[in-house]
Design goal:
By secondary structure, the protein is of the alpha/beta class. The chain contains eleven helices and eight strands. The chain folds into two domains: 157 residues, Nitrogenase molybdenum iron protein domain (Rossmann fold); 114 residues, Rossmann fold, CATH 3.40.50.1980. Strand 3, helix 4 and strand 4 form a beta-alpha-beta unit. Helix 5 packs antiparallel against helix 6 and helix 6 packs parallel to helix 11. It is globular and about 60 Å long.
Length: 318
Amino acid sequence: MKHLYQFCILLSFFLMSLGFRSYSVLAETKPIKVMTTFYPIYTFTKAVVGNTGDVTMLIGPGMEIHDFEPSTKTMIELEKTDDFIYLDPSMETWVAQLEKSNSSRKTNMIKASGEMILATSQESPEEHQKEEHVHEVDPHLWLSPRRAIQLVENIKDSLVKSHPDLASQFEQNASQYLKQLKELDKDYQVTFSQAKQKSFVTQHAAFTYLALDYQLQQIAITGISADIEPSAKRLIQLIDYVKKYEIKYIYFEKSASKNLARTLASEANLNIAVLNPLESLTQEEIKKGQDYFSVMRANLKALRLTTDRASKAVEDEQ
């Protein structure tokens, strides 16, 4: 009887330990919750997190990143989130407001740019006639595959620090994604090492890092907008500039006015090409299979319209 009693005691402890272990396993496998700001940070983070958690995006297509104002709902959701990942305060200028609301400090606030040094912005006030915000530094790091590699590394390292038990999954997921980014970087490097024309002219000076990393020169045309036709005076100046340097393409965002494109084509014998700043993708674009890589390869193809053609070295307008 005594032995039976001892056996029952031991069995009880054994079953209890199994229960604790089961609970521990469940706790470890509970998906983490990660909130990101806009598309590039979302897609980089999702690649690293994989199936270990749920990744959401705060700012969707058609929403202005700089003018975004966190709602009460956003503040509440933040408190339920394990990690909040943003690019840099120069892009998401409202992040400080979120950090103040994170009173419980349960949410890890992760800056994807980490210790990266940002270049001085080439954007001018003329480019932002309708906007209050003008960048002092250029936040468009994701538009260079080489900088995108560093962003993914930073996101991965920060998540490993926040969730060391998931380190191996993060490392494995990041490794697969970084392999694709390095292939993209190589394609850019090989293409532009053979460039016959190193300068490209753009209305939106968002490609500073791309130019720096692949030995190109970004020439930003000021005083014109993607959706407003230039004045007669500005058009004459632009025609003279285009003829002087034999420019065949000026790059706009995909939202460029068709009227402006027609005007420039007819008056300046100039073509409009698209460089996508990739701040967002619509659901329709995603359904069609577009992603970071497809858009960046489309940008590469568009730039080749200029770089594959030998012409005069282009200088900034005086």
